[in-house]
Sequence to fold (754 residues):
Amino acid sequence: MFRKLMASAVVVVVVASATLFVVRSADAAGANVTITATAASNGTTTLTYRASVLRAGSVRDIVVSIPSGSTGRITSINGTVSTVSAGVLRWRPSKTVNVGVGARFSIPLYGLRLPAGGPWTLSFKATGTAGQILTSGTGVLQPLKTYTAAVRITATKPVPGQTTTLTYAGTVTRAGVLSAVRMQLPAGSRGAITSVNGTLRTASGYVTWTPKAPISVAAGARLAIPIYGLVLSKYGGVLTLAMSAQTSTGTLLLSGTGSIALIAPPAAMPAVSVAGFVAVPEGCPTSWPTTAAENAKPGDDEWVIPTSMNGPLAAYLTEVSATCGDTVDLKVTSGKPVSVVAYRMGYYQGLGAREVWRQDDVPTVAQPAPTTGGTANGKELRMTSAATWTKTLTIAVDKDWIPGTYLIKVSDGQYASYAPLTVRDDTGTKHDLMIQQATATWQAYNSYGGLGFYSGGVAGGSGRLTFDRPYNEGQGSGQFLTLEQGLVFWAESKGLDVTYWTNNDLDEFGGQLPARAGTIFLPGHDEYYSLRMRAALSQAITRGVNVANLGANTAYRLITFTDASRRAWDIDRYTDGYNSTTWRYQGDAYASQPLLGAEYICPVLGQTLTTGTSWMFAGIPAGTALPGFIAGEVDYVWPGLYKHPGLTTIASGTGNCHSNNQAVPMHTTAYTAPSGARVLNGSTFAYGCFLVRRCPSNWTVPAPSLASQQAVGAIVGNITEWVSKGTIQVPADTTAAAMRVALPKHTLQTNAQP
Fold:
């Protein structure tokens, strides 16, 4: 039977409510001191000292030690507590207490705040009224066991846009009677959600679970609440979500956050038909000269338009690309007779072009001003068009037009302008390398005669763009001279087996890409992609075509060609402004990163890239500075977007966002697809323009140094050999004459992105 030690005094300030008692034990062999700690509701700790009585008597006092550094207002029950010395306390009973051998003391001390650390060895001594020692010994106090919320959130199907069961689990950190659990839902999620053993209420992005009846929970208990039927948003990421549990009076029993990765895999793309090649027209060759043989022909520097000839003369072609046997109409506004000269762009002893065709003294008229307008589905398209211009000349593309990129130079003696044309090789020959021209992006940035996509902000720009007008960038070349000519010049200077096409061709002939080339280069700024373009590129990767994206911000905006002519394309800027124009607006599965390895972040004007030790920099000393190479726009690996297995970052740097001057990372990435295709994402605009030492005039480094040109040439060579798996061997550097190309008439609008 237990005998209680009854006393009635409190020492310091706080009155306690527990009972001091002594429990008889049959074992009186030793003091058997034990000391335990429990958390109190006010955040303090209660220490309870227990010891066996070794000698019978009447209790005078009990002296105990506490951990050094303890603080607090310490109280007990049935007696008073006083301080003997630092870290030593004395408890005196309020009334006479007699104990027998084998009885068990139990003395609680309330209100302590323990220091960090432990365990601690503490003493206990009980003295009788005659001065005899009733019991004495030491015990070990283990640190108070505390709990963290340790919130963990799991999903049965953690894929954006899917229906899932989300389970929130957390550890109770404070005992109490549970009345509600509040959980933060992923942004944009919806659905008729349910749970078990309670009811749900949603508000302001949170769901609150209320049990059928209050539940008593102890510290350390684990709560797990499933939420069934939750439909996730099409946007995911690495989300941090909150969870808390409380009593009916609002006391928190747990509070914390957990992370869950909701990562969308690459979106499924529709199959693109693989059409056969049409028969080669009569009078056209079934094979073409090699790049080396073509570039051995004499070059011509007359292709260059000096800035003094910039003016009102303008021209455009009625086709973006053509092949042998086609005809193309040219439309010119001048009012004076003009010379029309077609130049094939390449290396040509460093002069950059060769004259292929010309016609002089061609009469022209002063064409009417382009018109801006149009509506579709009740939306103002604000499309600027010069389609009403009369034809100036019809050009036959014949056997003399070796496939390649062309600039048609039109001059009346006072003013001059270009009209670009890409000539395809449609013989069915498979080439080592394809270089794509970003014609859709050229048109987005074109505001000739009125509006472009970026004119007038979100509301004022075009929702439909047409190729039926001249370009006002690059002296009529679009963004070819500013960003793309360098890739052409470099590839042809090396004698690579290279062919060319445009964005329009990727949309029309995309299924043929594996039959046309083993590797494709995407240019510096290849931003605007239709569904067929993206599907064709994705399908080509699955069929083993290697991709080197020597740019950034690629496949970022979603367009739709209006008809089979592909002379115009639409973009949805009405649903949600700039947001609705992007591929990512369709959901994270449609971002660029799941396709190419990295994703656009912002425009920059030019920061230095310092070379590292990856294979991309082979032959270049580590630590070599390339001033201005991180330029135009940059990509990086977003942690919340899909990353291909084996994706590596082979180069990195930092740029400053033009819009807010905040530092942002740039990541050049590489991965190998399951098909064996290799994919590289260059993540800056600067590759092409550094190869000819002529970048947009509003960049911080518009004229890179010779050393930078040579280093970037080596980088592009390393990329070419890696991405092609060695099927393209790049010869050593070619000594080239200095390029004599005028700066673009208009600066590249690097500050136009959101």
Summary: The mean pLDDT is 92.
